[in-house]
Amino acid sequence: MTEMVYGAVPVWDAEPVLPKWWRTIDKWSVSCVLILFGVGILLGLAASPPLAEKNGFQPFHYVQRQAFFGCMALMAMMLTSMMTPQLVRRLAVIGFIAAFISLALLPFFGTDFGKGATRWYSLGFASIQPSEFLKPGFVVVAAWMMAAGQEINGPPGLRLSFLLAIIIVTLLALQPDFGQACLVLFGWGVMYFVAGAPIILLMIMAGLVVLAGSFAYSNSEHFARRIDGFLSPDVDPNTQLGFATNAIREGGFFGVGVGEGQVKWSLPDAHTDFIIAVAAEEYGLVLVLCIIALYAGIVLRSLTRLMRERDPFIRLAGTGLIAIFGVQAMINMGVAVRLLPAKGMTLPFVSYGGSSLIATGIAVGMLFAFTRSRPQGEIGDILRGRVR
Prior knowledge:
Layout: H1 2-6, H2 17-24, H3 27-54, H4 61-81, H5 85-104, H6 106-109, E1 121-122, E2 127-128, H7 130-149, H8 157-173, H9 178-194, H10 199-219, H11 221-231, H12 240-251, H13 275-307, H14 312-336, H15 354-371, H16 379-387
Antiparallel strand pairs: 1-2
Helix pairs in contact: 3-4, 3-13, 4-15, 5-7, 7-8, 7-9, 7-14, 7-15, 8-9, 9-14, 10-11, 12-13, 13-14, 14-15
């Protein structure tokens, strides 16, 4: 009778995959990602030739590798974003288990490449950092646990996800990789807050994090050295932070000119952790503000779409993914301007790095799959219905 009066609801099940994907995806966020990738290639052309020359490669060796891994990342992002949330969840669980096992075996089979932290598996032609792939998988698994815990007679999802987070943070701290550990804990805390955690509990957790940081400072030379360098009132001009700070100061509003920057000849990580210093020196504050606006656009667009989502799992997983994505970008840029201690963290889609690029592509693909438009009522309509 309802269909006779109001008409039948159109069914799109037979719609081809690509047109349906294009119709439901957030095109503004996809555009921002593509622009960020283009900016990364542009900055790679400036930042990587000095390192290639030092290591005996062709001038654009690292740019070519970044383009290759970046294309793989974009393909992974597109394919993942075409999946249903249920398929994303299943594949994320499998990927999380594989990444977790790889992370646990790092002390036995991993390498540090002379950087003082065992974070990678060396494959000869490339290296893999398991923690990069662990983050999106953990977010989805933790969101699944939290959502299941909200159901009647459901499992204790919040406690199980917290236990899992503590185990992962411990494994990361032992490498040591405190930056990734903080990201994982932050992502879990954001999801826990969205799931309805009391403020007092989050304050207690913040206090525990401070205590854990104090313990790490007292027992880890690697951690203490970075904190001391951050708190020191004077910056050694011959350190990475010193070179980056000077480059940002020299760049001013409009930069010194394309190819005229000098920091890329001094910084060993100019194409990875300190790529924003190259952008600030050669293109000035204008490009830096554009990069910040692109990240802010992705974060705000994703959160806006997630606010309308009815499914608790999708809402929690999407919020966790975008929180980690946005905070990682903020940490990378904050380190370059001495707002945060050095973390050794890449700038998503802009910095060079195979594992980072591909893992970020997968994570953002998951986010796009969760934020695609689906036929559902607005969550505000549901809340108003409960009030009535």
